[in-house]
Amino acid sequence: MTKPWLVHRSGITVDVGAMGLDEARFDALPWDRVFDEMRELVGGAIANADENRQVGHYWLRAPELAPTLGQAQAIGDAVEAVRDFAAGVRSGKIASEDGRPFTHVLHIGIGGSALGPELVLDALEPTQKGLTVRFLNNTDPDGIHRVLRDLGPNLRHTLIVVVSKSGGTAETRNGMLLATEVVRAAGLEVPSRMVAITGEGSALHKQAIYEKWRATFPMWDWVGGRTSVLSAVGLLTAELAGLDTAAMLSGARAMDEWTEAGPARNNPAALLAGAWHLAGNGKGDRAMVALPYSDRLVLLSKYLQQLVMESIGKGLDRHGNVVEQGLVVYGNKGSTDQHAYVQQLRDGRDDFFATFVQVLEDGRGSRTEVEPGANAGDVLQGFLLGTRRALRESGRPSMTLTVPRVDGTTLGALIALFERAVGLYASLIDVNAYHQPGVEAGKKAAADVLKVARALRDAARVAPGTADELAERLNADPTEAMYVLERLVATGRLGKDGDVPTARYTKAP
């Protein structure tokens, strides 16, 4: 048996009663310092010291909190511009070159520039008055081909939204290049269907201005990609789809007001952050398994994976000490995926805590009884509570988040709840939640690999050799060289005699 330890407001409940927390240890956490740091952040303090940047995603739903009138005005202007533009597109006043209305949107982005908007669109669904949205969120050529192929004749009436703060993100740039190539091949005009969401003065911004793209919208350096969904990044595509973005902003604002200060016991974000801290001994010793029991929230676990792991997974604390912090997040949806891994959760490694998310209403679903006295939604809740009980009986901790329904208000609130929890938890463990040096390191390494790939291709064409021989000539890693050379062979740019690891790579026949 467990007793609820919960907070509740406006139909949203956060219950950590099944986490097995020591209440005295929870109360002893340095909440005064943590809330002081959060107030300073919201007030405009430099939170991302690496880049000397403020962190202002909380201002997006409450512009009056921004430290300068210019920032507040910019937020308000951007929201108004997004809504005016989307209304023009939906009404047909802003149309394709043949005068017919746009019917589809191709949203091109990566990471937070795509994952947040994808969550919103999948959870809320476009209305009949909205456009159909597809996403390019990788640089996989086959994946890009599939999306563009599926657009088919609708490409003629597709608006292309390109999202990149710097304008130099490789995956986004490549998606844009391949999409516009297909547009030109179809004899269609490019600039009149292009929209940029980017930083002022970025390479993408300059391109959009020079080529006279249909519109541009801002990305500010004080909003990180993983917290950008309630900026133009997420609002534009949502508005084009006919969704109620005002409800999302309102829901997020209400949650921000609920979670901005103590006491920690009455603050749902603090309950989450404190539970994460105590469950994982302040070091992330337990993973978070996110289990939303709702098809509409299937992408929530992926969204949380980026938000939490990119923010918390840091090698150094804020004083430069090696800490190797992190909080692993994985999961999918219930009850589908409880058939995949609940066996291990109940009987296997005791290295996680579950985060159940239940939706009380059935939405537009049928209320037909599928069992005596129970409809399909009742059965779904039965699986959630049954799994929760089974975990508790095995001594496995869990928490339960309950929302009344999946709508714009609730989704905005969930986004804001986890944003705040991440910020509070980062303060508890003394890491910078607002930079991502590991991501930047990966981007630099990828650029270096591409240079090596070009050199390997040229070297093999001039003087054939094995992967080891070619790598030695270029002072490259031999294993990386083998992988690169094998891809060059598979795509017809090199030939090969023999097989790995002793194959000799040559000029293509």
Short description:
This protein has 509 residues and is α/β, with parallel strands linked by helices. It is 46% helix and 15% strand. The strands form five sheets. The chain has a six-stranded mixed β-sheet, with helices on both faces.
Mean pLDDT level: 95
CATH architecture of the largest domain: 3-Layer(aba) Sandwich
Major sheet details: 6 strands, mixed
What coarse outline follows from CA principal-axis ratios? Answer: globular
How many domains make up the 3D coordinates?
Answer: 3
Name of the CATH superfamily of the largest domain: Glucose-6-phosphate isomerase like protein, domain 1
Name the CATH class of the largest domain. Answer: Alpha Beta
The radius of gyration computed from the alpha-carbon positions, rounded to a whole number of angstroms, is 25 Å
Please, how many helices?
17
- End-to-end distance, in Å? 72 Å
The order of strands across the largest sheet is 1-2-15-12-10-11
Determine the fraction of residues in helical runs and give it as a percent range: 40-55%
What is the percentage of strand-forming residues? 5-15%
Which class do the helix and strand fractions yield?
alpha/beta
Uncertain ranges: none
